[in-house]
Design brief:
Number of strands of chain B: 17
Mean pLDDT of chain B: 97
CATH class of chain B: Alpha Beta
Number of domains of chain A: 1
Radius of gyration of chain A: 19 Å
CATH superfamily of chain B: Thiolase/Chalcone synthase
Shape of chain B: globular
CATH superfamily of chain A: Thiolase/Chalcone synthase
Oligomer: heterodimer
Strand content of chain B: 15-25%
Helix content of chain A: 25-40%
Strand order of the largest sheet of chain A: 3-2-4-5-1-6-8-7
Order of helices and strands of chain A: HEHHHEHHHEHEHEEHHEE
Mean pLDDT of chain A: 92
Shape of chain A: globular
Strand content of chain A: 15-25%
Low-confidence stretches of chain B: none
CATH topology of chain A: Peroxisomal Thiolase, Chain A, domain 1
Number of helices of chain B: 12
Number of strands of chain A: 8
Distance between the termini of chain A: 35 Å
Chain lengths: ~280, ~400
């Protein structure tokens, strides 16, 4: 891996010198939604990440998906409840109408419980699976439910980068905002897996973060963030429980960024991406 | 958008391995569907299976990625000079300046389905040889491809069901335009599995005959599999006469239903209009539309209404899924390659298996091949969850 890191560093250095690229991508952050183990919402997360409150790990509590029509509500799984909660929190904080927003959804995998049920059925003597289980199995099911719940016909992109999923989603959203000037709601989330899948993919609970991103210098901005590639090592969190959470759930790789925002002063953090390629994020309140 | 060069493309599907066979099949309107004899599946349906996938040996250093989906990917990566082109691109820009953007819907979930059949009868534990991250995870195909070419730039899997490998063109375009990369390896890889076959069966959307897109008597889809890949770069000044450009990308959401399209094809129409706007084109500029055309009653009706509303009945159009089957997450990719071949060859492909075009849809729907020089085409891809994407391609000259 040393040689790969050296190669990346060399190319980055060359390109920085020639000024060909690495144009910094700066966007405004207009709203945040957060839900995870011991993190009931962004208000609570903000206090914990700013060291004004203690972090007490506890199971994630997912609210019922009130925004969905009754039929869809019955059919929705954990991921749908999670994305509706954090998406609505972020959009409300930004004071926006969710039906107007383009979205980027990023998750390291699909609904593990739904997948488990399908695989059990397909391994049994009677392979007939339910139509609802099938349409809930697509990676973009939460994106589909979100668009139905809020009536959003704007573009929605759904990506996966395994453990690099938060970085992949952030890049997708930031390039959309910076290149096309489209205000974009990024929803990065993961939900837990049941056994036997949990043994091979040990995600233990649900965690999600939603960020409303808009063109730089927005009047609604609570912070500006600038993203570049780096081969510097990713940041660690000082709190051991939060660091453990960050490493256990891919969407929680966002925590160093959220902490920088919570601390309310200019900071540069490095977020995990595709080792040794990582994302340097400068946060300006 | 600024046009991008779409080059060194290749396709692997049931109609052929590589561009030569694919073009030959299109020219002779030869389909590749056959009665399903896959994995002991007991469904009365036809599939577009790629031959000899099981015989592929995944490169030894990448054996943790061994599954049908990555075997199919490796077949695609190794043909039509793509690997040489990637090396040349890496030499020109650097390995960190090439991004990987691949669409897939089910990746290697077949591996998980098989692993569940081999669970320990007492503990329920999955077999020790099952590697989740290299097979089942949606990113596995992008990770595999990035490692196959020893690329060190960004990589992502797009997974929005049947729009996945059209959507990657939009993601790649934005990252090139942002200056984060100079080239993108784009496309889609999706492979047969039980989840989609039994899943579409549960929705009563599988045809018991080779699928008949836009036919008055169409009755459902035939599932296929494919690998389709190509390179996107900023065009140079000295483009050759056969060069193909990505001119526009249009995206939208239905916000209507998880597995049924908006009846009037509203989301589809928005995506096509957005593609035209992105390319600074108007409907009369388009010489051919490669339809999503899955051959279900409601999908084709909704898409047909959307096309008629925007283009009238004058623009030639067809679905090529009667030939290839519906390759789901790879459909957008294979149809992008078919559009590129159509532009290069002046070939408007006629719809395979369609006997009588639906008289309720006022379209210039092609039942037989038409030969004429064409300059600009659209390719439609629409997926579950109401995810819509339309790509505009054109000749450089």
């Amino acid at each position: 891996m040393v040689s790969a890191a050296a190669t990346v560093a060399w190319h980055l250095a060359v390109l920085t010198e020639t000024g060909l690229a690495l144009r910094p991508l700066t966007v405004s952050l207009e709203g945040i939604g957060l839900l995870g183990p011991g993190l009931a919402d962004w208000r609570e997360g903000l206090a914990i990440l700013a060291n004004r409150a203690d972090y007490r790990p506890s199971a994630t509590v997912l609210p019922p998906p009130a925004a969905l029509p009754p039929t869809e509500r019955r059919r929705s799984g954990k991921a749908v409840k999670l994305v509706l909660a954090i998406g609505q929190e972020a959009v409300a904080a930004a004071g926006l109408d969710p039906s107007t927003l383009a979205t980027v959804f990023s998750s390291s995998g699909g609904d593990g419980y739904n997948c488990h049920e399908i695989c059990v059925t397909l391994a049994s003597g009677d392979r007939r699976i339910s139509p609802t289980r099938f349409h809930n199995s697509v990676h973009n099911a939460p994106a589909g439910y979100w668009s139905i719940a809020v009536g959003a016909m704007a573009p929605s992109t759904v990506v996966c980068g395994f453990d690099a999923s938060f970085g992949a989603g952030l890049l997708e959203a930031i390039t959309q905002v910076a290149v096309d000037g489209i205000r974009t709601l990024l929803i990065a989330y993961d939900t837990d897996y049941p056994e036997p899948l949990r043994s091979v993919r040990p995600i233990f609970d649900a965690f999600g973060v939603a960020l409303v991103l808009a063109s730089a210098h927005s009047s609604r901005a609570c912070a500006e963030i600038t993203v570049t590639f780096t081969v510097a090592a990713p940041d660690h969190l000082a709190n051991a429980d939060l660091e453990a959470l960050k490493l256990a759930i891919p969407a929680a790789r966002s925590l160093p960024l959220l902490q920088a925002i919570a601390q309310g002063r200019p900071r540069r953090v490095v977020l995990d991406y595709l080792d040794p390629l990582h994302l340097a994020v400068e946060v300006s309140p | 958008m600024s046009p991008l060069l779409f080059s060194h493309f290749t396709a692997m599907s049931c109609i052929g391995a590589g561009l030569g066979q694919t073009l030959d099949a299109l020219c002779s309107q030869r389909g590749g569907l056959a009665a399903c004899q896959f994995e002991g599946i007991d469904l009365d349906t036809w599939i577009g299976e790629v031959r000899d996938v099981d015989a592929v040996r995944i490169r030894h250093d990448l054996r943790e990625f061994d599954c049908r989906n990555n075997r199919l990917a490796q077949m695609g990566l190794a043909q039509d000079g793509l690997a040489e082109a990637v090396e040349q691109t890496a030499a020109r820009f650097g390995r960190s300046r090439i991004g990987v953007f691949l669409g897939t819907s089910t990746t290697g979930i077949l591996q998980t389905e098989q692993a569940y059949r081999r669970r320990d009868p007492v503990s329920g534990v999955l077999p020790a040889d099952f590697v989740y991250h290299g097979t089942h995870n949606p990113f596995s195909v992008a990770d595999f491809t990035r490692r196959y070419f020893r690329l060190t730039g960004p990589a992502v899997a797009a997974s929005s069901a049947c729009s996945s490998s059209a959507k990657v063109f939009g993601s790649a375009r934005r990252m090139i335009e942002a200056g984060l990369i100079d080239a993108a390896l784009v496309g889609g890889i999706d492979s047969l599995c039980l989840t989609t076959l039994y899943g579409f069966n549960s929705l009563e959307l599988l045809s018991s005959q080779p699928c008949r897109p836009f036919d008055a008597e169409r009755d459902g889809i035939s599932i296929g599999e494919a690998a389709a890949l190509g390179l996107l770069t900023r065009p140079q000044d000295d483009l050759d006469s056969d060069a193909i450009l990505l001119l526009g990308v249009g995206e939208s959401s239905d916000a209507y239903h998880m597995s049924s399209p908006h009846p009037e094809g509203l989301g589809a129409r928005l995506a096509m209009q957005a593609a035209l706007d992105s390319a600074s084109l108007v409907p009369r500029d388009i010489d051919y539309i490669n339809l999503h055309g899955t051959a279900t009653i409601s999908n084709d009706a909704a898409e047909g209404r959307a096309v008629a509303a925007l283009f009238g009945a004058e623009t030639p159009c067809s679905s090529t899924k009667g030939a290839t089957g519906h390759a789901l997450g790879a459909a957008g990719g294979i149809e992008a390659v078919i559009c590129a071949l159509a532009l290069q060859q002046g070939l408007l492909p006629g719809s395979v298996n369609t006997r009588r075009a639906d008289p309720g849809l006022a379209l210039d729907y092609l039942l037989v091949n038409r030969r004429q020089p064409i300059s600009r085409v659209l390719s439609n891809s629409f997926g579950f969850g109401g995810s819509n994407c339309c790509l505009a391609f054109g000749r450089a000259n």
